[in-house]
Every structure is written in structure tokens, then in C-alpha cells.
Specification:
heterodimer, A: alpha/beta, 6-stranded mixed β-sheet, 10 strands, globular, B: mainly alpha, ABC transporter involved in vitamin B12 uptake, BtuC, 2 domains, two-stranded antiparallel sheet, 26 helices, 2% strand, binds adenosine-5'-triphosphate, binds magnesium ion
Chain lengths: 254, 621
């Protein structure tokens, strides 16, 4: 395997007394789907926030294609090729679905500081192509504020893909979707990841999705990595069984 | 040293009065999250009521001190009942509305109370006749110090102590503190929120009334008390930290002492000084001295911003027709119509410039008149000191205002919500105070006269065409910005800062650029206005002028791009047509504001668009 796209070394994050992320290391290669799982409050979202610059790590190092991301703001990290979807969707409610994607494209092509042209005419075809990829083409004209939750998640994926990223961070991309939809969306994602050679790190509470779609799985609990490997290894890992079965749940918190 | 002691004591006594007002304001804000503009009016009412009641008591039982105390207390209670009445009839309906609407509604009450006071007590200042015991002096360090001021100086700390007891020893007080920290929590505990809010208004208004009644012996009741005290009270509350009573105490000490020493040491800039202190505190501690970040950054106020769509073609045609009609007035209407039309053109641009920030930018400025005034003064000062002709003056106006826009904007865009509104207000007051007090440069209250257009534009028709070209042209340009990538970026930053930053948008810079453009556009409007009137005055920068702009935007509807244009025309029409002809135009305007807030929260254009979208079967967000 070539050099990893994302390389995380011993990152640390504390919130007051809570050790949210403790000595976590992992890496993701191009074309790989890496799942990060763990019970609620394990520190998954915090890991994402450390990678894309939303939070500043207390220790450790994050490298993107060999380049350290320490001290770089989220918007600069995005320019380096990190697309992201949020656990709680964040979209522009006063714009249509297409305009949301156009906004990301405008930023990507660095035409934001243009005052006289019409934004609605910019990169229309490109936006429609992205929407078609995630199955949102028919909804392009709808106001984003009226979309169903699952459609918002799909839109977020299109937005995350707009800057042609090297790394895709997806925090619970399928939360709020019907089980069938979940598998469909993640299969779609996997197709894109393979085709474009992206690295994809995602969290997910639905174990069917995780075991079905991930190439490799990381398990976190209370800020620490407790297991790592293929679906088979993780499933049979005593520590993992302890965390999940001990807590009385078989398929996560949702 | 004696001088220091005396000034210090003077500061203490005005700190007490300031603390009474500010503590009421901060308690009301802490619990209900309402920024109550009418609080200054309650203070004024306290003074007027005390003037009537104390004198009635004295006529009945002689000029005894205990009757003064009784009169003051009765006045405070009457004021608190008025406060509760306002809460129950008006505010109760708008607790869930956006902050701006609440601010405006209470400003409407300010106007109504102003006219009511004028109608009841007349326009003259009313001093309380002072019996000997109120006039006494005490020998301190060789100087005579008014005994009443010394009593006032003690009252502040005493009230602080009583409030402490109230908040720590009674169930009501404990609830107030809990609600200040976490409103949802209290609601969840099953406390009757209505009673709590009414109780808080009772307490807060009583404190304001008490403050007004207590300053009566040294100040006399007058009609300017309300707005002059409310600006200072806002400063104290913001500097102390909104919702914090001890913070209000500290801040009132700080502000009153700054004023007491400033008057002697830096007499030319006393007014500016106060707002400079506030701006300085907010830069270091964005939540004030003892304030905390608001636990719940006001959740969605129930209003989702709708999708912006370009105007339907019929609207564009209507606009062109209206413009053609306006441009043809010299051929069929009299001189007065031309004057009104120039004003209209100016206000359309003024409103549109504020809208760029308020609507797409999501930044509600409470001091937009500053930039209007800076434009006007930019042109006038250019004429006075550089002998600039009108052509250069009209270039100077937006540049001057835009320059201040960048400088103030750097600080403004870092804040949000109420703190942001207060900071913009503070900056506007700084500009106003400079224009008002810096007499050598700006002419102070007398303004700068003789700001006339160049020879070719002195003809009224020509100046109308020039105004239309500049103001409507600039308004169209602002409209264009809203639909450009920049305008979309601005809306993106407003809709979701998180997502905007996550797709590489520099949200602070977007807002700063918008703030600067808006300031420059308002400055151009101010410049055109200055040459139309031939003069500039500090009133161009006053709080009511900023409120005018807000009202125009809201009347039209903040969520549409056409809104501010319609709003400016409707507002100015209302103003010129009806309000100015009646004696009590303030009360009429105040009532219109209250009705607007209660009945048409979307504004005229917003209302029309909702209709249009429904008729067309378009999905609204
Ligand atoms: N901004 C913050 N301030 C303080 N504590 C935080 C903050 N963000 C997260 N935490 C704490 O850090 C821990 C990890 O939270 P995180 O959101 O990363 O968990 P998660 O694995 O994403 O959980 P979930 O499955 O519920 O999304 C939790 O105990 C959480 O309470
Ligand atoms: Mg999470």
C-alpha cells in the first residue's frame, strides 16, 4: 500500500475532566472505507473535529498526505482536500438544493469575491452532476429547508464532494434514514470512494452498514481505541463484545 | 486631593441613580431576554409622577421628609404597574419573536409614552420646589457638598444589598436567578413563566421609577430624560454583563466615575468617553465584566429564512414605471413634490444599505444612522476644510463612511445578537457625540450650513435627477450584490456558520465586507441628503434616525430584496402624509410600530411574496 492519505498519531483531547480522545492513532489509505465505531460519547465526533481543525488537539499529530495539519483553520484544511458531513446536518436553509452545491463549487473555484455575476448561473452543470451522483437530481430546485432528513444527508455528501477531496469525513451519514436507504447511501459512497480513489473515514451506529461496507473497522470506547481490524476480527474481539454486549446493546445506540 | 475626593463623591451619587436604572434593565433582560427600550421612559415617568405626587403630599401635610419618601415610593409603584401592563398587553405576545422586533416594539412604547407625557405635563421642565432640608450642604475637605447627593450615594449600595437579599432569601429571587442562568430549565420545572415574567417587570420597572423619582430633586423632570438615560443604561448593562446585577453595580461605578472625572479633565469628549469605555470593555471581555456567554444561544426563533428568488418580471416593470414617473415629476408637479422625492430616493438607498447587512448578512445594526451621518459630514467637512465641490463631496461621502465602516466593522463582526446590536449603537453614539460636542470642527448643535450643490445642479429638477441616478443606481447595485457569489456567501455565513467555514468561506471577512459596503452606501445617501438640505446636523446620527432605517426595512420585510425599497416608500409616505400633520405624530408612529410588530412580522413585501408563492404553488421554506 502507498503512503496513507490520512495519518493520525497519538492525538489527545480533554474537555475539563473528560478525556474525550486518548492516544488515538490510525491511518486511512486511498480508496479505503474506514469505519470508526463505539458507543455514544466514545469520542468519535471529537476525532473528526480534531482532524478537520474544528478543535485543536492537546497533543499528537494529524497529517494529510504527509503534511501536518497542526494549527490550520477548518476552511484552510478544506482547501487541502478534506470534505466533511456533520452528525447534525449543516446546510444553507435559505438556498435551494442546487444552490447549496453551487456555493461549495464557487468557493472551490475561488470565485466568491465576485460582486456582479449571478451566483445561480455558476457551475450549474457541475452542481447537477454532483446531485445526480447522490440521487438528488430531481430535488435540485427545492428549498433546502423543506427536505427530509435523509435527503439532507445526501445533499451534504454532494457538498462534501464538491471540492474534489482526497479525504471524506462522514459523521453518522445515515442517521435518520430507513435501513434500506442506509445501505444504499453507503454503497453509493463506496462506489465513489473506489472510483475516485478517496480515503473515507465514517462513523455509524448501524452494524449491518458497518460490517457490510467498511474495509476496516476501528472501535473506540471512552476516548481510547480498543480494537482494530476487519469485520471478522472486530466481531470476535472480546473487548468489543464486552463494550457492546456488556452495555446491553447489539447494534449501537440508535 | 480635595478635588479628587469631591469628584469621586459626585461620581458615587450619579452611580447610584445609574445603578437603579441599570439593575432593573439587567434583571428584565436576564429573565425575559427582552432588551427594554421603554425602560428609560419608566425612569422619566418616575420623575414626572414623583413631581405630581410629592407635591400633592406636601400640599396636604407640609414639606416633611417622610412625605417625600412616601411620594417617591408611590411613584415607583405606579410606574411598576405601568411596566406590568406593558408586559401583559404587548411583550407577552412577542417573547418568541426575533430580538429586533422586541427592541422595536419597546421603542414604539417609548414614543407613545413621550407624547403621553407631553400631553399630561406639558413641554416645560418641571423642577421640584426644594425645602431647606433638601437644599442642605455638608462641609467636606473644605468644600460644600450637597447633602442630598451624599444620601443618593448611599442608596445605591443599600439597594444592591436589598436585591441580594431578595435574590438569595426569597423563592421569587431564587427563581429569577435560576431563570437568568437557564430559562428552559425553569420552564421544565413547572414554574408559571407568566407570573415570573410579570413579577420581573414589576421589580425592574419599580427600580426605574425609583431612580427617576430620586433624581428629581437635583435634576427636574424633562422630556429628554428617557433617551439620554437609556443609552447610558445600555452601556452599563452591557459593560457589566447582561443579566448580572453585581456587574451592573460595578459598571455604573465605572461609568459614573469616568463621567465625573471626564467632565473636569476632558470636557470636550465626555460623551464619547463613556462609549469608548464600553467599546474597550467589549473588545477585551465580549460578554461584559461579569457576564457569561448565554447558555442557550437563542434557538431558532421559529422563523426559517425563505429561499431568495429573483423578483417576478411584473415587479421589475412596475419598478421601471415608478422610476419613470418619479423622473417626470418636474414636468407636472410642484417644488414640494420634488423635495419629497429626493428624500424618498435617499431613504430608499439608506434602507437598502441597512438591508444588505440585516437580511443577507444577518447582522442587525442598531446604529446605521452613524454611516448616513458620516457621509453627510464627510461632504460638509470636505467643503469646509478642503473647499471640495459637490462632485468631490459625493465621492468623499461614501469613502468617509466606508472607512469608519471598516474600522467599526472589525469589532462588530466578532459579536452576535444583543451584544452586537449594542456595540453598533455605541459606535453610533460615539459618532453622534463627536458631531455634537466637537464644536470647533463640526459646529456642534448648529451643524454646518451652506452645503449647496454645484451650479449645474442647483436647479431642483436637475438635483432630483441626480439623486435618482445616484440613489436608485446604488440601490440596484446593492440588489445585484445580493444575487452575486458574494451575496450568496454572505447568506451562507448567516444560515450556517459551521457549514460555511467547512466549505472554505471566511465568514468574518464576508460580514466585514458587507458591513463596509453598507456603510459606504448609507454614506452616499447621507451625502445626497446633505446637498439637498444645504446643511448637516448631529440629528442625522441620532438613535431615532437609526430606528427609522430599521423600520423601513421591517415595514417592507427583511426577507425580500424588494422589501426595503417598498418599506422606505411606505414609511416616508406615512411620515410625510399623515404623521407630520398631526400634533401627536410620535404616539401615532409608536402605535404603528407596535401594530406592525404584532400584525405584520413579515412586512409588506414579505406578506405579498408569501401570497404570490402560495398562488404559484411554490414551496416556501
Ligand atoms: N465541546 C465539548 N465540550 C465539552 N465536552 C465535550 C465537547 N464535545 C464533546 N464532549 C464530550 O466528549 C466526549 C466525547 O464526545 P463525542 O461527541 O466525541 O462522542 P461520540 O462518540 O461522537 O458520541 P455520539 O455517538 O453520541 O455522537 C463526551 O463525553 C462528550 O460529552
Ligand atoms: Mg458523535
Amino acid at each position: 500500500m502507498s503512503a496513507p492519505v490520512l495519518d493520525v498519531r497519538s492525538i489527545e483531547k480533554r474537555f475539563g475532566g473528560v478525556h474525550a480522545v486518548a492516544d488515538v492513532s490510525f491511518s486511512v489509505a486511498a480508496g479505503e472505507m474506514l469505519a470508526l465505531i463505539g458507543p455514544n460519547g466514545a469520542g468519535k465526533s471529537t476525532c473528526f473535529n480534531l482532524v478537520n481543525g474544528q478543535l485543536r488537539a492537546d497533543g499528537g499529530e494529524v497529517r494529510l498526505a504527509g503534511r501536518s495539519l497542526a494549527g490550520i483553520a477548518p476552511r484552510a484544511i478544506w482547501r487541502l482536500g478534506v470534505g466533511r458531513t456533520f452528525q447534525i446536518t449543516a446546510t444553507f436553509a435559505s438556498m435551494t438544493v442546487r444552490e447549496n452545491v453551487q456555493m461549495a463549487l464557487i468557493s472551490h473555484h475561488r470565485t466568491l469575491w465576485s460582486f456582479l455575476s449571478r451566483a445561480a448561473d455558476k457551475f450549474r452543470a457541475e452542481a447537477d452532476a454532483l446531485l445526480a451522483q447522490v440521487g438528488m437530481a430531481e430535488q435540485a430546485e427545492r428549498p433546502c429547508g423543506v427536505l427530509a432528513y435523509g435527503d439532507l444527508k445526501r445533499l451534504e455528501l454532494a457538498v462534501a464532494l464538491a471540492n474534489d477531496p482526497k479525504l471524506l469525513l462522514m459523521d453518522e451519514p445515515t442517521a435518520g434514514m430507513a435501513p434500506k436507504e442506509r445501505t444504499a447511501l453507503m454503497e453509493l459512497t463506496r462506489g465513489i470512494v473506489r472510483a475516485r480513489g478517496l480515503a473515507c473515514l465514517f462513523t455509524e451506529h448501524d452494524m449491518d452498514v458497518v460490517f457490510g461496507q467498511a474495509d476496516r473497522i476501528l472501535v473506540m470506547n471512552r476516548g481510547r481505541l480498543i480494537a482494530e481490524g476487519t469485520a471478522e476480527t472486530v466481531r470476535n474481539d472480546p473487548a468489543v463484545r464486552e463494550v457492546y454486549l456488556g452495555a446491553g446493546t447489539t447494534s449501537g445506540g440508535h | 486631593m480635595d478635588f479628587v475626593l469631591i469628584q469621586f463623591l459626585t461620581g458615587l451619587s450619579s452611580a447610584s441613580a445609574l445603578f437603579l436604572i441599570a439593575s432593573g434593565l439587567t434583571v428584565i433582560f436576564g429573565v425575559t431576554r427582552i432588551v427594554n427600550f421603554a425602560h428609560g421612559s419608566f425612569y422619566m415617568l418616575g420623575a414626572y409622577l414623583a413631581w405630581t405626587i410629592v407635591r400633592a403630599f406636601w400640599d396636604w401635610g407640609g414639606r416633611e421628609p417622610y412625605l417625600f419618601v412616601a411620594g417617591v415610593i408611590v411613584a415607583a409603584i405606579v410606574v411598576s404597574l405601568i411596566g406590568v401592563a406593558m408586559e401583559m398587553t404587548l411583550l407577552r405576545r412577542i417573547y418568541r419573536a426575533p430580538e429586533l422586533f422586541q427592541l422595536l416594539a419597546t421603542f414604539g412604547v417609548v414614543l407613545i409614552i413621550q407624547d403621553a407625557t407631553l400631553a399630561i405635563w406639558g413641554p416645560e421642565d418641571l423642577p421640584l420646589p426644594r425645602p431647606p432640608w433638601l437644599r442642605g450642604f455638608i462641609e467636606i475637605a473644605g468644600s460644600r457638598f450637597p447633602r442630598y447627593d451624599l444620601i443618593l450615594a448611599v442608596i445605591g449600595p443599600v439597594v444592591l444589598g436589598l436585591l441580594w437579599l431578595l435574590f438569595h432569601r426569597t423563592r421569587f429571587g431564587v427563581l429569577v436567578r435560576a431563570a437568568t442562568q437557564d430559562r428552559e430549565m425553569v420552564a421544565a420545572l413547572g414554574v408559571d413563566q407568566r407570573k415570573l415574567f410579570s413579577g420581573v417587570f414589576f421589580l425592574g420597572s419599580a427600580l426605574a421609577g425609583l431612580g427617576g423619582a430620586l433624581v428629581l430633586p437635583s435634576q427636574s423632570a424633562n422630556l429628554q430624560m428617557d433617551l439620554s438615560i437609556i443609552a447610558e443604561a445600555f452601556v452599563v448593562v452591557v459593560v457589566g454583563g447582561m443579566g448580572s446585577v453585581p456587574g451592573a453595580f460595578l459598571a455604573s461605578l465605572l461609568i459614573a466615575e469616568v463621567q465625573a472625572f471626564g467632565i473636569v479633565l476632558l470636557p470636550k469628549i465626555t460623551l464619547v468617553l463613556v462609549f469608548l469605555v464600553m467599546a474597550a470593555v467589549l473588545m477585551v471581555r465580549p460578554y461584559g465584566l461579569l457576564g457569561k456567554p448565554q447558555a442557550h444561544a437563542r434557538a431558532q426563533s421559529g422563523m426559517v429564512e425563505p429561499v431568495l428568488r429573483p423578483a417576478p418580471p411584473i415587479l421589475a416593470w412596475a419598478g421601471i414605471a415608478a422610476l419613470a414617473l418619479a423622473a417626470s415629476t418636474p414636468f407636472w408637479a410642484g417644488a414640494y413634490a420634488l423635495t419629497v422625492l429626493v428624500e424618498l430616493a435617499v431613504f430608499v438607498l439608506f434602507a437598502a444599505s441597512l438591508h444588505l447587512m440585516m437580511g443577507p448578512g444577518g447582522v442587525v445594526s442598531f446604529g446605521h444612522a452613524a454611516y448616513f451621518g458620516l457621509g453627510a459630514y464627510g461632504a460638509a467637512l470636505g467643503l469646509r476644510y478642503l473647499a471640495l465641490p459637490m462632485e468631490a463631496g459625493l465621492v468623499m461621502a461614501p469613502l468617509f463612511a466606508g472607512l469608519f465602516g471598516v474600522v467599526f466593522g472589525v469589532f462588530v463582526v466578532r459579536l452576535s445578537g444583543v451584544y452586537l446590536a449594542m456595540l453598533t449603537l455605541a459606535f453610533a453614539q460615539i459618532v453622534w457625540a463627536a458631531a455634537f460636542q466637537w464644536v470647533d470642527i463640526t459646529g456642534g448643535d448648529n451643524g454646518i450650513l451652506g452645503v449647496w450643490p454645484s451650479a449645474w445642479a442647483t436647479n431642483k429638477s436637475v438635483y432630483l435627477w441626480l439623486s435618482l441616478a445616484l440613489c436608485i443606481g446604488a440601490t440596484m447595485l446593492l440588489r445585484r450584490f445580493v444575487f452575486s457569489p458574494f451575496g450568496y456567501g454572505l447568506r451562507a455565513a448567516r444560515d450556517s456558520e459551521l457549514r460555511a467555514e467547512a466549505i472554505g468561506l471566511d465568514t468574518a471577512r464576508l460580514r466585514l465586507v458587507a458591513f463596509t459596503i453598507a456603510a459606504a452606501a448609507a454614506g452616499l445617501a447621507g451625502g445626497v441628503y446633505a446637498y439637498a438640505k444645504g446643511s448637516v446636523f448631529p440629528t442625522y446620527i441620532s438613535i431615532p434616525k437609526s430606528v427609522d432605517a430599521l423600520l423601513m426595512v421591517l415595514l417592507g420585510g427583511v426577507q425580500t430584496v424588494t422589501g426595503p425599497i417598498v418599506g422606505a416608500i411606505a414609511y416616508h409616505g406615512l411620515f410625510v402624509g399623515i404623521l407630520q400633520t398631526t400634533q401627536y405624530w410620535r404616539a401615532a408612529l409608536g402605535l404603528s410600530i407596535v401594530l406592525l410588530v404584532l400584525a405584520f412580522p413579515l412586512g409588506i413585501a414579505g406578506f405579498a411574496r408569501a401570497r404570490w408563492e402560495r398562488a404559484k404553488g411554490l414551496e416556501a421554506a
